[in-house]
Specification:
- With 412 residues, the chain is of the alpha/beta class.
- It has three domains: 25-102; 110-259, Heat Shock Protein 90 (2-Layer Sandwich); 281-401, 3-Layer(aba) Sandwich (Rossmann fold).
- It is built from eleven helices and 14 strands.
- It has helices spanning 24-72, 78-103, 114-125, 148-165, 227-237, 264-274, 289-301, 312-324, 344-354, 370-373, 390-401; strands spanning 2-7, 13-19, 110-112, 131-136, 144-146, 170-180, 191-198, 241-247, 251-259, 281-285, 305-309, 331-335, 360-364, 382-385.
- The strands form four sheets. A five-stranded mixed sheet has the order 4-6-7-9-8.
- Helix 9 links the parallel strand 12 and strand 13.
- The longest helix is centred in the N-terminal third of the chain and has 49 residues, at 24-72.
- The two termini are 48 Å apart.
- Bound molecules: adenosine-5'-diphosphate (ADP).
- Adenosine-5'-diphosphate binds next to helix 4 and helix 5.
């Protein structure tokens, strides 16, 4: 609806023209255009993902083939194995990025040393590049409560963008700083960790700087325009701030500001515990053969007594029997989704009836599933996201062993 005043010669308003217009059709066309544009971008994205995964597979294949040949000659293959692990992690980061974007998953937070995370992520992202990272991350940087996978993804995105902007190479600077904001009351959190990422690349023209956080906005031939939009949504979900400053021809600086954690002490304690090997009796349920078998081997290697189950019903039967013969399991690790069978949540509901004190960890590749960030409400004591590094799994196991259960009525 538009309205315009009608004025007489003296400028007095003597009436109004009101125009009512049905814009349904116009809106429909706009939506169709938006859909078409999104489909276009999806095509570009699918192409990009296929390309990236292909490179990753090529890398793993080459390493495994070399390892196989060398092994026949009884030569050391650890170099190829380590390289395969590193490349696989890259694939896992890519999957996480796609999942965050697809579902906007809530972060699964834990207290972490962000300086270590930055160093590891950047070194990996810049391997083989002519851009060199320079770190100015003080030892006493406060601990932050973050989803390490998601924040690594943000750092990775910013590093790759910076590298692509620095066409002839150069230095990419990382700064860390503890900051305290003045707040009106003592209850509003005011301790933050500020991370600055400063490149000396082509910069961002003023006309487009307001668009760079839009999904699918890209100025690159092979870009997908998802890096900054995913990063923005991740930082927002961490109750942080994400800002940019740029001078064309001189460089771009991104700022990430995250709330500091109150959990410094627990971080140090849990790091100590990781060293300890377990003796606990563990039931591992996963329908995926490779994950179940390798997971079982990994846990046995660390001294745990492991029993494997393919699905929920088998896990329930094994748990019941072990309890009856007086050799109960100390902990259960369960897969969230089991196609055609009982998944983690349904299995847990039954197991809680058999043993209200059960200690269980839920595992899934769907980091964005609401259960993964709200696992305690479903009766679980911990969570691991697949594919997990063994350090992560052991850390969660150690924590859960001593953890108290929530009362039954808190559970759905
Ligand atoms: P993509 O990298 O796939 O294009 P992003 O969302 O990560 O998607 O970035 C969107 C756009 O923002 C880029 O295409 C580029 O134009 C601009 N941009 C992002 N980071 C930088 C940077 N460090 N220097 C210059 N331009 C940048």
């Amino acid at each position: 609806m538009n309205s315009t005043p009608i004025k007489d010669n003296d400028g007095q308003v003597i009436g109004t023209v009101i125009v009512l217009q049905d814009i349904t059709e116009k809106q429909k066309i706009e939506q169709e255009l938006l859909k078409a544009a999104k489909l276009d971008s999806l095509g570009i994205l699918a192409g990009g993902v296929a390309h990236d995964f292909n490179n990753i597979l090529a890398g793993i294949l080459a390493n495994l083939q070399l390892a196989a040949v060398k092994l026949k000659k009884h030569q050391d293959i650890s170099k190829y194995m380590e390289s395969s692990i590193a490349i696989t992690r890259k694939a896992s980061n890519l999957t996480k990025q796609l999942l965050t974007f697809a579902k906007g998953g809530d972060p699964v937070k834990k207290s972490a040393d962000i300086a270590k995370l930055i160093r590891e992520t950047v070194q990996f992202a810049l391997s083989g590049s002519n851009v060199k990272a320079e770190f100015h991350l003080p030892e006493d940087l406060w601990v932050v409560d973050i989803d390490e996978g998601q924040i690594a993804q943000v750092i990775n995105n910013l590093t790759i963008n910076a590298e692509q902007a620095m066409l002839t190479g150069g230095i990419l600077e990382f700064y860390g700083e503890n900051i305290i904001f003045e707040t009106a009351d003592q209850y509003t959190p005011n301790h933050y960790v500020k991370i600055t990422i400063k490149d000396h690349g082509i910069g961002i023209p003023a006309e487009i700087i307001h668009k760079i956080f839009d999904p699918f906005f890209t100025t690159k031939k092979t870009g997908n325009g998802l890096g900054l939009s995913t990063s923005h949504s991740i930082i927002k979900k961490h109750n942080g701030y994400f800002e940019v400053e740029s001078a064309p021809g001189i460089g771009t600086t991104f700022y990430i500001i995250l709330p500091a954690s109150m959990n410094e002490v627990t971080l140090i304690e849990s790091q100590k515990e990781i060293a300890a090997s377990g003796e606990a009796k563990i039931l591992l349920m996963d329908d995926e053969d490779s994950i179940r078998n390798v997971g079982g081997e990994m846990l046995s290697y660390f001294g745990y007594q492991v029993t494997l189950a393919r699905g929920g019903q088998e896990a329930i039967d094994l748990y019941k029997r072990a309890k009856e013969i007086g050799e109960p399991f100390d902990m259960v690790i369960m897969d969230l989704t089991v196609p055609g069978g009982l998944g983690g949540i349904e299995t847990m509901a039954v197991l809680r009836q058999i043993d209200p004190d059960i200690k269980a960890i839920i595992s899934s590749g769907y980091a964005s599933d609401p259960v993964m960030s709200d696992y305690e409400r479903y009766g679980f004591s911990g969570v691991v996201i697949k594919p997990y590094k063994y350090e992560e799994l052991i850390e969660v196991l150690n924590k859960v062993i001593d953890k108290k259960q929530l009362p039954l009525d808190f559970i759905y």
